[in-house]
């Protein structure tokens, strides 16, 4: 019997997976677990959403401080 | 072995599998996934599955062509496959792709191609990844052909709807205010990690940070973002804002 579901991945690991920063070996472990674990699926969705928000916010801040204000709408649109 | 059966028998079996997968998909559709209650349902299902899965028995039943084996396989993997495919490819033709995936898995098991039943999860993952790769390959080819024909490039519309956009913009505003409250150095650390996708090791090395400092900064920013979001949402009259979480696409 497989007990993958009883050991969930941490938020940090799922965030790294969302960013594509886990090793090939870890990636297969995470993906196999995700196939049958709704709880980690939800965590990964949350990580995806959070990363998307942080990226957009970082882009806004960096465009706010640069000398090309006309680029800002374009950068934000790209991040959406 | 079932896979060595004659042509007519094989066609019959394929139709049989098609029909059962369609029936199982219909049951899922009729039940109607309730997005609001999804998280609660998920954890309950997770515990149930962990204590029940017997891969040897499951694969043996599918190999023998028992409907109960197919049902259990579907119950076990349908959400996960849907989640993976939707996350990678978006919601277009999702049901067809899930159907194809199950068909490939079931046929492989019936032919006896899966020699280690305990590797079923790995096998399903491989099939799903191949489906994703095949789809991307198909899209790339069709776009190339369209370019050759000079009929213009069609790009899938992956934008959120206006409601989701508004919710997203608001979250970005919260995050901007969280980042504004940080020092320039701390902002740079987060930006390097989330935007530039530098590894933790690289960042710690280049910015002379310990792993603990790095993790603390990340978790504090996340906690602050959560607090701010909750506070702002509570300040607004009910109904003035959607509290639905956004995702790149709905999986159900």
Give the topology, please.
The complex is a heterodimer of chains A (80) and B (252).
Chain A: H1 11-18, H2 24-36, H3 38-65, H4 71-79
Helix pairs in contact in A: 1-3, 2-3, 3-4
Chain B: H1 7-31, H2 38-52, H3 55-63, H4 67-89, H5 94-111, H6 120-149, H7 162-180, H8 184-195, H9 200-207, H10 211-235
Could you explain how this protein is built, in words?
The complex is a heterodimer of chains A (80) and B (252). Chain A has 80 residues and is mainly alpha-helical. Chain A has helices at 11-18, 24-36, 38-65, 71-79. In chain A, helix 1 (11-18) crosses helix 3 (38-65). The longest helix of chain A has 28 residues, at 38-65. With 252 residues, chain B is mainly alpha-helical. Chain B is 73% helix and 0% strand. Chain B has helices at residues 7-31, 38-52, 55-63, 67-89, 94-111, 120-149, 162-180, 184-195, 200-207, 211-235. The longest helix of chain B is centred in the middle third of the chain and has 30 residues, at 120-149. At the A-B interface, helix 2 and helix 3 of A face helix 2, helix 4, helix 6, helix 7 and helix 8 of B.
């Amino acid at each position: 019997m497989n007990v993958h579901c009883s050991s969930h991945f941490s938020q940090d690991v799922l965030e790294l997976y969302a960013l594509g920063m886990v090793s090939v070996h870890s990636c297969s472990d995470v993906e196999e677990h995700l196939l049958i674990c709704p709880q980690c699926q939800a965590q990964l969705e949350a990580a995806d959403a959070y990363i998307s928000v942080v990226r957009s916010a970082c882009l806004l801040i960096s465009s706010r401080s640069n000398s090309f204000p006309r680029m800002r709408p374009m950068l934000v649109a790209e991040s959406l | 072995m079932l896979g060595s059966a004659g042509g007519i028998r094989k066609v019959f079996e394929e139709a049989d599998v098609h029909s059962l997968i369609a029936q199982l998909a219909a049951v899922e559709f009729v039940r109607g996934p309730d997005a609001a209650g999804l998280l609660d349902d998920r954890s309950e299902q997770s515990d149930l599955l962990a204590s029940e899965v017997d891969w040897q028995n499951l694969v043996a039943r599918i190999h023998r062509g028992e409907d109960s084996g197919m049902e259990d396989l579907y119950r076990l993997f349908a959400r996960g496959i849907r989640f993976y495919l939707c996350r990678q490819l978006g919601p277009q033709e999702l049901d067809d792709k899930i159907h194809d995936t199950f068909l490939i898995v079931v046929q492989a098991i019936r032919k006896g191609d899966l020699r280690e039943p305990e590797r079923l999860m790995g096998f399903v993952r491989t099939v799903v990844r191949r489906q994703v790769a095949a789809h991307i390959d198909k899209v790339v080819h069709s776009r190339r052909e369209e370019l050759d024909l000079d009929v213009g490039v069609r790009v899938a519309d992956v934008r959120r709807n206006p409601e989701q956009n508004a919710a997203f913009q608001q979250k970005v505003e919260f995050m901007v205010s969280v980042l504004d409250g940080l020092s320039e150095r701390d902002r740079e650390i987060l930006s390097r990690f989330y935007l530039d996708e530098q590894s933790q090791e690289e960042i710690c090395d280049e910015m002379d940070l310990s792993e603990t400092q790095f993790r603390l900064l990340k978790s504090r920013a996340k906690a602050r973002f959560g607090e701010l979001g909750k506070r702002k949402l509570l300040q607004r009259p009910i109904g003035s804002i959607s509290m639905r979480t956004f995702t790149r696409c709905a999986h159900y």
